[in-house]
Design a protein that fits this description.
252 residues; alpha/beta; 5-stranded parallel beta sheet; two-stranded antiparallel ribbon; 13% strand; binds 2'-deoxycytidine-5'-triphosphate
Length: 252
C-alpha cells in the first residue's frame, strides 16, 4: 500500500491519525464481507473493523428515536420509488461512521494500524447507485443530484474518506445467491440472481476492468487486492490462513 510521505514519523496526534491506513472490503451482496472483516479483526491487533450500518437502514428513526420505517425493505419492495432515498441514506450513514476518529488503541499500535471498512462511499456510488440509475430506478434528475452532493461531500471530507487499499472479495454471483439464501435476511427474499449478476458486473468494471468512469482521480490509483471468495474461507482454516497472509503482505 502506498503511504503519503508525512506518514513515517509519529510526533503528534495528527501524525498518529495519518499513520492509520484505511481499507475497504468490497464484493457482491452476501459474498462474506462481514465474516471476512471479523477474521481480520481477530488476526491482527492493529486492525479495527468498522461495520456497515445496515441496521440503521432497517430501522429509520424519527427525532425522538421512534422507529419510523424499514428503508431497506421499502427499497426492495418498490425500487423505483425508494432507491434514491435509500442511496442517500446509506451513503450518509456510511460517511458518518467513516468520519469517526480511529480508536486510541489503534493510534498506539506499534505496527501499521489499519481501519477496515465494510464497503465504502465509492461502492455506494459506483456499484449500487450507478446500477439503480442504469436500471431506471433512479431517474436522471436524481442521479445528477446524487452525483453532485456525493462529489461535494467526498471532496470536502478529503483524507477522512480516502482509501489506501481495497480488498475485493470476488465470487460468481451464483455463489453469492447460495449464501444469500442461507443467511435469509428477510428484506432480501425477493433478490434474484439477475440482480446479483448486475452488481457483479459493476464490481468487475470498477475494480478489474477499470472501465467505470470515476469522478475522483485519486481513487483510480488505489491498489486492489483480489481474493477468490468462492473458496469457503469461513470453514476452511487453510484458506483463511492463505487469505490472512495475502492481506498482511498487502498491508506491509
Ligand atoms: N445495499 C444497497 N445499496 C448500497 C449498499 C447496500 O442496496 N449502497 C443493500 C444490499 C444488501 C444490503 O444493503 O441488501 C447490505 O449489502 P452489503 O453487500 O453491503 O452487505 P452484506 O451484509 O450483504 O455483505 P456480506 O454478506 O458480504 O457481509
Amino acid at each position: 500500500l502506498s503511504r503519503s510521505p508525512h506518514c513515517h514519523s509519529s510526533t503528534g496526534p495528527m501524525d498518529d491519525i495519518n499513520r492509520v491506513k484505511r481499507v475497504s472490503i468490497e464484493g457482491n451482496i452476501a459474498v462474506g464481507k462481514s465474516t471476512f472483516a471479523q477474521l481480520l479483526q481477530f488476526a491482527g491487533q492493529d486492525w479495527e473493523v468498522v461495520p456497515e450500518p445496515v441496521g440503521k437502514w432497517q430501522s429509520i428513526e424519527s427525532g425522538s428515536s421512534q422507529k419510523v420505517s424499514n428503508l431497506l425493505d421499502m427499497m426492495y419492495q418498490d425500487p423505483q420509488r425508494w432507491s434514491y432515498t435509500f442511496q442517500t441514506n446509506s451513503c450518509m450513514s456510511r460517511m458518518r461512521t467513516q468520519l469517526q476518529p480511529p480508536p486510541a488503541r489503534l493510534l498506539r499500535a506499534k505496527g501499521v494500524p489499519v481501519q477496515v471498512f465494510e464497503r465504502s462511499v465509492y461502492s455506494d456510488r459506483y456499484v449500487f447507485a450507478l446500477n439503480m440509475f442504469e436500471l431506471g430506478c433512479i431517474n436522471s434528475t436524481e442521479w445528477a443530484v446524487y452525483q453532485d452532493w456525493h462529489s461535494f461531500l467526498v471532496e470536502q471530507f478529503g483524507r477522512q474518506v480516502e482509501l489506501e487499499g481495497i480488498i475485493y472479495l470476488r465470487a460468481p454471483p451464483q455463489k453469492c445467491m447460495e449464501r444469500l439464501g442461507q443467511r435469509g435476511r428477510m428484506e432480501e427474499k425477493g433478490v434474484q440472481l439477475d440482480y446479483l449478476e448486475k452488481l457483479h458486473t459493476q464490481h468487475e468494471r470498477w475494480l478489474i476492468d477499470k472501465s467505470t468512469k470515476l469522478h475522483f482521480e485519486r481513487l483510480t490509483w488505489v491498489p486492489v487486492l483480489v481474493l477468490d471468495a468462492s473458496l469457503e474461507f469461513e470453514e476452511d482454516p487453510k484458506v483463511r490462513a492463505k487469505f490472512i497472509t495475502q492481506v498482511k503482505d498487502f498491508f506491509s
